[in-house]
Design goal:
Largest sheet: 7 strands, mixed
Number of helices: 12
Distance between the termini: 14 Å
Mean pLDDT: 95
Shape: globular
Radius of gyration: 20 Å
Helix content: 25-40%
Strand content: 15-25%
CATH class of the largest domain: Alpha Beta
Structural class: alpha/beta
Low-confidence stretches: none
Number of domains: 2
CATH architecture of the largest domain: Alpha-Beta Complex
Number of strands: 17
């Protein structure tokens, strides 16, 4: 089968790889219909983090179940399914606590030895605990919105949830990538936020942010950005901040714009390992919650709302390319020509 393979920084291509197949009795094989490139994939593409040459790429996909192991009980061949970016048994203590991203038996698609989502098919370990079937009747027009539930929508919503967003809240979102934009959508459409301040200076992302519910746009960064947010909130700052970048600068902004007793929900992957001075958050009574989003926790609800038409994160995909052009997809996202690329 064909799949995306990492060769070196700036070089992702498509090559022939062994066919996905059932290995363990709890496995399923999913024939991929749609996959995509994630902002976190760009860290190795840009050479910020090391990745083994020849490793598979991608962790977001939806498709049709093509084969199941003998112990799989909740799925049938032909089911349309969405996969979160990590597999989990959904039965261990962490999973039962709703932190499937810390599953004792879990793993991540695209990690060494695992199939990546950017391929013609994927072997899915622990299929019963991982995959969520889409109700019958969902048409191809819903594929973009369903694909978004596999990572960015759940991750954005998780950031807003960690920040304590609730009905009528005022929220600031730092980051106008797909996760940040989905944090806007999750905060407004799912959690009921009344006001969302999006930090964005790119016209296409600003426009989408407004479509998703952003009420205010701040283009400034650093101290100027903090001052602008405080000016919009009568000098108080915001009670809820979603940090969706993961850099030193974004963290400084998050702490700086949070009001006394506020909360920061961080889902930006801190590959750059920013150091967070604790004295400021300590003095200002800030609550900081962060972690890899347990998308599996949110997935049934997100799929249900997507199918019934009350939630649509599909517009984050502003470019569609065939799998064979995966190199172009990475280049487009790395240069910020595209918000997020969907692969067919």
């Amino acid at each position: 089968m064909r799949a995306a393979v990492y060769l070196s920084a700036g070089d992702v291509t498509v090559d022939d790889v062994p066919d996905a197949a059932v290995v363990e009795p709890t496995d399923a094989v999913v024939r991929v219909l749609r996959s995509c490139v994630c902002g976190s994939d760009l860290w190795s593409y840009r050479g910020v983090v090391n990745r083994e040459a020849g490793s598979r790429m991608g962790h977001e996909f939806l498709g049709l179940v093509e084969d199941v192991g003998r112990d799989v009980t909740t799925l049938e061949v032909g089911d349309l399914v969405v996969s979160p970016f990590q597999w989990s048994d959904n039965t261990c203590p962490a999973c039962l606590d709703g932190i499937q991203s810390s599953c004792a038996n879990g793993g991540t698609f695209g990690a060494p030895g695992a199939d990546g989502g950017q391929g013609e098919a994927v072997r899915v370990p622990l299929a019963d605990g991982t995959l969520v079937a889409v109700p019958s009747g969902a048409g191809e027009d819903l594929y973009p919105a369903l694909l978004a539930t596999s990572d960015v929508l759940g991750t954005g919503l998780h950031g807003a949830t960690l920040a304590g967003v609730s009905e009528g809240a005022t929220v600031a979102v730092i980051g106008d990538g797909a996760v940040g934009l989905c944090a806007v959508l999750g905060a407004t459409t799912v959690l009921g936020a009344e006001r969302v301040i999006l930090m964005s200076r790119h016209a296409d992302r600003t426009e989408l942010g407004r479509r998703f519910g952003a009420t205010d746009i701040v283009e400034s960064r650093g101290a100027e950005g903090i001052a602008a947010v405080r000016e919009l909130t009568r000098g108080l700052g915001v009670r809820h901040v979603v940090e969706a970048v993961g850099t030193k600068e974004s963290w400084e902004m998050a702490v700086g714009m949070a009001r006394e007793g506020g909360a920061i929900g961080a889902v930006g992957v801190p590959h750059a390992s920013p150091r967070l001075p604790l004295f400021g958050p300590f003095v200002h009574h800030l609550t900081i919650s962060l972690g890899i989003a347990p998308v599996r926790r949110y997935l049934p609800m997100l799929i249900e709302r997507t199918v019934d038409g009350t939630l649509d994160a599909g517009p984050v995909f502003d470019t569609v390319l065939p799998l064979e052009q995966v190199g172009d997809a990475y280049a487009a996202m790395a240069s910020r020509q595209s918000i997020k690329v969907m692969l067919t």
